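Summary of Year 1 activities. Much of the first year was spent building the evaluation harness for sequence design. The harness presents a backbone, in tokenized form, and records the residue chosen at every position. We chose the following record to illustrate the format because it has been used consistently in internal testing since the harness was completed.
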């Protein structure tokens, strides 16, 4: 009887925590509770964006990773994104000046780097994500696919187009090739291509080299090339993870970034409340 009561209380606590996460995203937050889903842990990480590292709140469940922009520390968030763990892959990265204790999260639609406050916290995040993903794949009898989006190189990393080497300016703006992730100018990225693992129907900006390569134009992947000025219908995936165009991502990140134009890699530091909290270690036991 005591064991049954303890299990009920554990399930109730888990359900309340999941509801609290959903509520923290306000009316726009998608429902997160599902039978068998457990909140494993949560914490703040620095996510590398086009304009540099930005704080994001991450919530690890046994089957998905949820993150969003912080409005009020530890209470309110927006821009909820949901990543299915079975479709993801993590990759360890070495420390650099701009990002320490970092690793890469790779998904078919978007890949990006994140950094923790300490090496120990990074190891906890990576180990728990990998444990959850492995158990999930074992239980469902599936494997991670081989197609992942390339990480977009941050704007500040290059003062020139990485294809023609023309210098960027107010009129010569930066863009990103969604195939290779390079920072390129408009002249070197005039075409769009459908990259199925990012978005099944939408044309995305690609550079001249990726456009001409066999990997982008292969008919086996069902990719189609179209001109930049042709109309396209906006669409998003059901899980909330974006497959949006570069212009939509730029607008979103400009709204989220805080004084991004004055970001300095030397100023990167984490606040004390960012510590990763592990709620359900028993859920990761094989």
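For this record, the design step produced the sequence shown next.
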């Amino acid at each position: 009887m005591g064991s049954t009561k303890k299990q009920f209380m554990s399930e109730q606590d888990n359900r309340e925590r999941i509801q609290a996460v959903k509520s923290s995203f306000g009316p726009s937050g998608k429902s997160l509770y599902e039978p068998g889903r457990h909140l494993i842990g949560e914490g703040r990480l620095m996510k590398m964006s086009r304009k540099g590292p930005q704080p994001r709140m991450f919530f690890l469940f046994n089957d998905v990773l949820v993150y969003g922009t912080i409005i009020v520390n530890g209470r309110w968030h927006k821009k909820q994104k949901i990543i299915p763990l079975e479709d993801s892959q993590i990759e360890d990265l070495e420390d650099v000046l701009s990002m320490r204790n970092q690793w890469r999260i790779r998904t078919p639609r978007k890949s990006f780097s994140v950094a923790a406050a300490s090496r120990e916290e990074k190891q906890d995040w990576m180990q728990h994500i990998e444990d959850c993903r492995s158990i999930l794949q074992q239980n469902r009898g599936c494997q991670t696919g081989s197609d992942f989006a390339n990480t977009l190189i941050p704007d500040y990393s290059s003062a020139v187009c990485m294809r023609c080497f023309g210098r960027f300016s107010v009129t010569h703006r930066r863009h990103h090739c969604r195939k290779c992730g390079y920072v390129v100018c408009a002249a070197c990225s005039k075409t769009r291509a459908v990259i199925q693992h990012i978005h099944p129907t939408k044309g995305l900006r690609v550079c001249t080299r990726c456009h001409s390569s066999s990997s982008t134009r292969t008919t086996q992947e069902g990719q189609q090339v179209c001109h930049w000025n042709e109309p396209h219908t906006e669409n998003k995936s059901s899980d909330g993870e974006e497959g949006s165009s570069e212009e939509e991502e730029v607008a979103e990140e400009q709204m989220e970034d805080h004084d991004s134009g004055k970001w300095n890699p030397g100023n990167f530091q984490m606040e004390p409340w960012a510590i990763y909290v592990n709620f359900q270690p028993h859920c990761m036991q094989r």
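Helices lie at 2-24, 119-140, 208-212, 214-217, 246-256. Quantitative recovery figures across the full test set are reported in Table 2.
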